[in-house]
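Entry for the shared binder. Reason: the reviewer on the internal report wants the predicted structure included alongside the sequence.
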Amino acid sequence: MKIVFNKSRFMKKIIIAIALISFFGCTSDQLEQPVCLNGDCYGDFYIDTLGHPGTYQDAQGVWHIKHAGLNYFTVKGNLSALDPHYIINGVPLVVTAYDSNFFYLPGNVIWTYPVYSFLGLWTSNQMNTPIPIGTQTYTFPQLVTQTSIMNLAGYEIQRNPNVNVNHPAYPTYFATYSRYTYRPQQSMVFFTDFIGKSATIYIEISFGENKVIINKELKVVFEN
């Protein structure tokens, strides 16, 4: 039997085999683009003191915000730059979301929920915590069927007699957003009724279409 050796076909198979070995031999780190330009993604946040003379951060990291006549204050941030692969037409794919444990109703009713992470209200049954209002107590689901509820972060849960707080989409309403900027900021209300109260502001930063997510907290005290 005569064996015919096809040199051209043999070389093609060798080239394909080398290409496959080279591709599958790469580690996921080699194939994956870094999300942030310098490797690590970070975000630093602070309270803007402009318009609030005397505002300061104490040794424990708590911000003491003085009212000084303004009914708002501003949270500002600085974010790490993204790798060019996550910048589209000059727009960085970064989103900053704000939430807080500080709720209030018209009529000077203020309360806080003991949450520990961004949107943490929805990680347990804390929505059933009784809220004292006058001589009555309500839970959050009961309140939202009767009145609109505001949050320090700037969002409002509007009154809805037929609300289903267990619906998968409902937690997405619990945030305000600053999108596509390395210098995010969010203004929040500060009424004189807040003086003497404290709050925790929750911040979530998403870098590169949720490739990296970082959570931050700011603790604040409202003062005269």
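Summary line for the report: The longest helix spans residues 7-24.
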